[in-house]
Predict the 3D structure of the following.
Amino acid sequence: MKKELIITKDGSHSLFVPDLNETYHSVHGSISEAIHVFINSGLLSHRKKNINILEMGFGTGLNTLLTLKNIKHRKIHYTSLEPYPISSEIYNKLNFHTLINSDSDTFLELHTSNWEEEVFISENFTLYKTQKKIQNFISKKKFDIIYFDAFSPEKQTEMWTTEVFEKCFDLLNKDGFLVTYCAKGIFRRTLKSVGFEVISLDGPPGKRQMTRANKSTYQK
Ligand SMILES: C[S@@+](CC[C@H](N)C(=O)[O-])C[C@H]1O[C@@H](n2cnc3c(N)ncnc32)[C@H](O)[C@@H]1O
């Protein structure tokens, strides 16, 4: 599928997919959206010190880079699913590391590191990228946070099914949760139907709300 580099409102790049008429991130700002949804409402909202993260899907590597940048005193194991990796021609042009004062070598390492094996990016950050789709992904490891960053339900319905969210529920630890930019009513009802406690949070720029779904109801 063809992908075109675009600039979003906060100056950060994203990709536009003409066949889907869809962008990888919000046009109101890729970095602003990712920090709001996945870092502030995801990573920094979990109390655990050793965290297992599962991402759908790796794409531009933005969420991975931001997670690495916000690791603080934690240890993170980061699993990312991506059946359709972007080309080196594209990832070499992405401006994320410049905008967040990270170094380009680290960002490029996230892309060039081997697939289907654990790679120690730093002492406290292990990356496991796999080209499996969520529908075929099997894991003995359970996760504390799922970054659910699929294309929108209108553009990729097969990612937003009861079966996929049942799988996410099973993949989470008891005190784990899923976060996503999506706040659609039908999606939230599907989450509830598979057992999640659904929390509405303020959305990133350009969006009223986003969603966090807790596996257990006791945590807020
Ligand atoms: C909205 S983009 C976001 C990607 C990434 N998080 C980023 O910030 O660039 C959705 C990603 O999901 C990937 N994807 C598509 N089908 C998938 C599937 N069945 N399982 C897992 N990921 C999938 C796409 O290739 C794409 O990279």
